[in-house]
UniProtKB/TrEMBL annotation:
Sequence segments annotated as region (Disordered): 231-252
UniProt keywords, alphabetically: Lyase, Stress response
Domain DJ-1/PfpI: 29-229
Acidic residues: compositionally biased ranges: 238-252
SUPFAM superfamilies, alphabetized: Class I glutamine amidotransferase-like
CDD domains in alphabetical order: GATase1_Hsp31_like
Family: Belongs to the peptidase C56 family. HSP31-like subfamily.
Pfam families linked: DJ-1_PfpI
The protein's name in its UniProt record: Thiazole biosynthesis protein ThiJ
Length: 252
């Protein structure tokens, strides 16, 4: 089966426009939904963060109202507890090579705005993955991480690509509002991405070749299922270091 890298923010706060620190991290629904569907399909999911730091769940994402009810909040919390060993010992992002994986998945929460959007190691990884046609699947605020990727001339590597992301409307109306330090949708547009926004808070998926993006937490499942469809009967990725050299050429 395929081998999937899930890149998760290690940030636990975001500096707001007024200079205050807003507690944040990854959004529970997004990480849980993607991780569960991908592993239940039989694929291997490795979690990586900047510096190998244990990621922080955004506490708001485990609130019943934000999660869509107490049952969902409890389910997300229980799943995170189940995968606690993986979350506690993530791979060090700077030590990861794209050619070991069939797909890179990037869930959101506001965390990616604080670290992944400017992480040079992630940028290198994404450029390498895109060059090789490896699936890249960020969703909600996850597409902020794409901003880390620049080409040899220093330009945004995903300029001209079609994608979606947590919209300015959603951020201002139900995210961190007017105090948001920068708007991911507008920033991606300004960098040259072609953003295709759907109705606020409704599932929306955009696929442009190997780039699969989702708009908001409600898009978590459709993104994960599109990744599964894109993987299809992909050749088995390397299972151990000794097999890497033999299998790298088969990873698409």
């Amino acid at each position: 089966m395929a081998r999937i890298l899930m890149v998760v923010s290690a940030a636990d706060s975001l500096t707001m426009k007024d200079g205050t620190e807003h507690p944040t991290g990854f959004w529970a629904e997004e990480l849980v939904t993607a991780h569960r569907l991908l592993t239940e399909a039989g694929h291997t999911v490795n979690i990586a963060t900047p510096g190998g730091k244990k990621p922080t769940v955004d506490a708001i994402s485990l609130d019943a109202q934000s999660a869509g009810g107490q049952d969902k909040a409890d389910d997300f919390a229980a799943y995170l507890k189940e995968i606690e060993p993986e979350l506690s010992a993530p791979l060090v992002l700077s030590e990861v090579s794209a050619d070991h994986y069939n797909a890179i998945v990037l869930p959101g929460g506001h965390g990616p705005m604080a670290d992944l959007a400017s992480d040079a190691n992630l940028g290198r990884l994404l450029v390498e993955a895109d060059r090789e046609g490896i699936i890249i699947a960020p969703f909600c605020h996850g597409p902020a991480a794409l901003l880390s990727a620049t080409n040899d001339t220093g330009d945004f590597a995903f300029a001209g690509r079609h994608l979606t992301v947590f919209t300015d409307e959603e951020e201002l109306g139900g995210g961190t509002g007017d105090n948001t330090p920068w708007l991911v949708e507008s920033t991606l547009r300004d960098a040259g991405a072609i953003v295709q926004a759907g109705p606020a808070w409704q599932p929306n998926l955009v696929r442009d070749g190997n780039l699969i993006t989702g708009q908001n937490p409600a898009s978590s499942e459709v993104v994960a299922r599109e990744v599964l469809a894109a993987l299809g009967p992909a050749p088995e990725a390397a299972q151990d270091d000794e097999a890497d050299d033999e299998s790298d050429e088969d990873i698409q």
